[in-house]
């Protein structure tokens, strides 16, 4: 009696893949945000979390809210990363034939996320607005390409690939 070989890793559910990918992307993006903030002279990285929380609570409430607001901002950051990840996982099977190069896909998706966040979604929130800075925008877009686009496109391609036997 011969047994059929079992795969080395069990199939991953789409929800689990989205969760894992969203956590990786959120962690990469959050780390890049802290590094970028520090590189520009920032000394209190918790202000990044306050800024994110200000989208819902407004500047004064978020920045005066202490650690509860910081935790809220971090949770919001990961919820946003999960949302962009879920969108990619839903769309990917429909555009897979156009997404041959993972790096090109990462660049396009990162740019898409930047445009949607900065030109559509953030303006609808209570987040404090500043003047447009092309250099800062380019850095932020690059971060999204590298930290959201790349892990999401790599992991979605792996998830949606036929199982290796």
β-strand amount:
under 5%
Overall pLDDT score: 90
The number of distinct structural domains comes to 1
**SSE pattern, N- to C-terminal:** HHHHHH
Largest sheet: none
Instruction: Enumerate how many helices there are, as a single number.
Output: 6
What is the subunit arrangement here? single chain
The helix content is: over 70%
Apparent shape: globular
What value does the Rg take, in angstroms?
A: 18 Å
Class by alpha and beta content: mainly alpha
Low-confidence regions: 1-11
- The overall strand count is 0
- Terminal residue distance: 20 Å
Describe the fold and architecture.
This protein has 165 residues and is mostly helical. It has one domain. 73% of the residues lie in helices and 0% in strands. It is built from six helices and no strands. Helix 1 packs across helix 4 and helix 2 crosses helix 4. The longest helix has 30 residues. The chain is globular, with a radius of gyration of 18 Å. The relative contact order is 0.16. The N terminus is likely disordered.
In summary, what is this structure?
This protein is mainly alpha-helical and 165 residues long. The protein is 73% helix and 0% strand.
Which short descriptors sum up this protein?
165 residues, 73% helix, mainly alpha, 0% strand, disordered N terminus
